[in-house]
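Database export, one record per block. Field names are fixed; values are copied verbatim from the stored entry.
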Amino acid sequence: MKRLNITIPDDLGQNLERVPNKSRFIAEALKEKLEREKKKKLEELLIEGYKATKKKDKMLNKEWEAITREGWV
């Protein structure tokens, strides 16, 4: 366990006063936030990757479409 001394806005502190186990509550909230940020970053990287290969993918699809149709014509 790591002990921290943090400062938060007054309104958050007032809301936190009603929480029975503040440390666990803050740890869970922080974990959820970090997971959302990690997921968002991964989604951004995937979108970037798809955009980077978009032109090449279209070209490959056209090539495969032509090859696939050869046997049907």
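Remark 1: The two ends are 69 Å apart (CA to CA).
Remark 2: Helices lie at 10-16, 22-70.
End of record.
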